[in-house]
Amino acid sequence: xxxxxxxxxLFILFLLLIPVLFAVAPALAFAKLGxxxxxxxxFFIVCLLGSSVNIPVHRERIAYTASMDDITALFHSLLGIxxxxxxxxxxxxxxxxxxxxxxxxxxxxxxxxLSLALLATAVTSTAAYALSKPVKGVGVVMPAFVPxxxxxxxxxxxxxxxxxxxxYISGVMGTxxxxxxxxxxxxxxxEAAFLSIGGAGVFDGIYLVGLVSVLLA
Length: 217
Hints:
The chain is of the alpha+beta class. It contains nine helices and five strands; from the N terminus they run H-H-E-H-E-H-H-E-E-H-H-H-E-H. The strands form two sheets. A three-stranded mixed β-sheet has the order 1-2-5. Strands 3-4 form a two-stranded antiparallel sheet.
């Protein structure tokens, strides 16, 4: 038999409150950062919309033919379709997953001790690098809750007085450094024609940093 650890009424109430918690979270997060809570909604919506925008920053010449799986190879042999030969790779920066969070992190950096922010960022970068991995055809994948939880714990331990600000800074910058920049040389070996810093599997972690890390701190 199955028994709920709480009463059925309380369990249903909790499910109904989940959308409310997600609606309140951005305002509460910005309030803890010492900023206008109303700006929190706008910022997180802009980041969410900006996740679909990638700004190219570098182009390089490459030369390889796209790989084929079994089904694609069958169509290739039957229809005689030639696979394109990729000659250029574009490296871009995601607007909602790197630029906007990075700008907010730089703004907050002026309001906290630099040494504490750098130390917490180093901890988060190490964790992000250790728990992320490049996957062919996908990019960098990483458990989404790793950056916010690690950055929150590091901020509470290292910078108690400035924990919310340091949690956000270390969560965003640590994820970008550990999961994207330090693995850029490995990502290039995936034979992808397009690479996005702060996009794909890394964006989820960075987006949650703004909510979970600050709330935990």
